[in-house]
User: Which sequence fits this backbone?
């Protein structure tokens, strides 16, 4: 017997790309287009080389990403965080002792 797949009830926007703005402390804002179910570490890694602090030898461990004041984990997706199209993610440099 032939089994048919159940219909896909996800709306077209559910898996669509969304535009996200990533805003750093230096005033640098970069717009990214990302799928709603793509882990945000992809966006984080793409943003980090644009930061001035990377030229000073800092790594991703020194950078914090937040959405609506909540820290973002690398495995989080826009869908999990309920990020909408055109939302902004804030980037902060973590204070590290001994670096000038």
Assistant:
């Amino acid at each position: 017997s032939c089994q048919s797949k159940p219909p896909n009830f996800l709306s077209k926007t559910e898996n669509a790309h969304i535009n996200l703005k990533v805003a750093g402390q230096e005033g640098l804002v970069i717009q990214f287009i990302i799928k709603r179910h793509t882990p945000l570490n992809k966006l984080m890694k793409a943003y980090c080389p644009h930061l001035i602090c990377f030229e000073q030898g800092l790594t991703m461990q020194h950078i914090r990403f937040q959405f609506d004041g909540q820290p973002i984990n690398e495995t989080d997706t826009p869908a999990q965080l309920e990020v909408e199209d055109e939302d902004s993610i804030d980037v902060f440099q973590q204070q590290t002792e001994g670096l000038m």
